[in-house]
Predict the structure.
Amino acid sequence: MAKYRVGLIGAGRKGTQHARAYMMDERVEVVAVADGDPENLALFQQRTGVAAYADYREMLEKQAIDIAAPILPVNANPEVVIGCAEAGVKAIFCEKPISVSLAEVDQMIDVCRSRRIVFAAGDLDVNLPAYQKALQFIGSGELGAVKSISLLGGPGGEMSGGGCQRFTLMRHFAGCAEVAWMMGWVSDDPLSDHDQGGAGYVRFANGIEAFIYGDKDARGRGYEVACEGGVFRSDDNLVGLYRHVEGDGASWDKLEKIEGVLPAGRIYGEPRGYDEQGWKWPGDRNVASCKALIDALQRGEDPPGSGENGRKVLEMAIALRESHRQGCAPVKLPLVDRNLRIIPSPARMYNKKPIFGREKYMDQVLSHKKD
Ligand SMILES: NC(=O)c1ccc[n+]([C@@H]2O[C@H](COP(=O)([O-])OP(=O)(O)OC[C@H]3O[C@@H](n4cnc5c(N)ncnc54)[C@H](O)[C@@H]3O)[C@@H](O)[C@H]2O)c1
């Protein structure tokens, strides 16, 4: 079977990791790279030997790209994702957060949907085998209905930038139900459009309740998914499934561990060094995320970390802030005002080289491979 042809757009820190994850999957081949930064472009070309372009539109014109991988600062996402879709690729996998405003995301999704393009946004924890197995087990009804989800330690200092990881798992544990309404408050300034921490309550349309802790030390970190017959717990490192002891009802003191369902060990895997070709391991999660995209392309449907998921989690973060702006009142979703936005931190929004300084930045990009 012919391999899917991957075109990387943005050969920076994260783009290099995505490219390496694709290189390790025999169903695809990384055939080209585009980057407006001549130094990053030349380094990637020298490391891989693929065709290199200063402009992604020229790459799409000259190479028959199946999977476009725009791994870019957020401000570039709308224009490039839409450009890739209009050029006729089969799949697009950009990074997270998907964009700044809901209006931009609506447009990105509409263009991809109208062309039946598989669209993913973000190398996400939801793709990790530990979470996928837990979701399957809970989804099969083995623990009875999900009653509540606690997001322990909150979304960190960014509800959109990093928090989208956590909101994604929350909504997947809720069976990807629509959010009916939510209320909450932000950590710093409710009037600011800039990304910040937050806390609150989410009511899903299927009745599941979710609680977002604001204080990172309030009750440890991770997730607790309470079901009728037991519980799933993650501390962001190790995970476990537990069943209420027979006859004790929903006793939270007496739980027995369910063995043999979840993979053993740390969710992100053990640290690994460089491989025999000199590449640094791109991380269990990036490998799993690229695999999820290729699996989805083969099935002709979006992966768990879809563009639609990116839209939902951005909307949740905005709704929580809007609630604060309205005196912590409940806010119904979907939000009517599509111009609402969250501006990610500068290091997500713009190229990192000028922000970090060239020397420090290049040390990081160079560390991906022993050249
Ligand atoms: N999922 C995760 O856990 C995770 C981790 C790190 C970064 N990220 C996300 O990945 C994205 C990129 O981060 P990074 O650290 O690789 O940034 P970076 O600054 O290292 O790389 C960005 C690259 O894109 C290039 N570029 C920018 N605009 C372009 C355009 N229009 N056309 C072609 N090339 C263009 C730049 O020249 C640069 O080489 C960010 O959105 C960030 O939020 C996600």
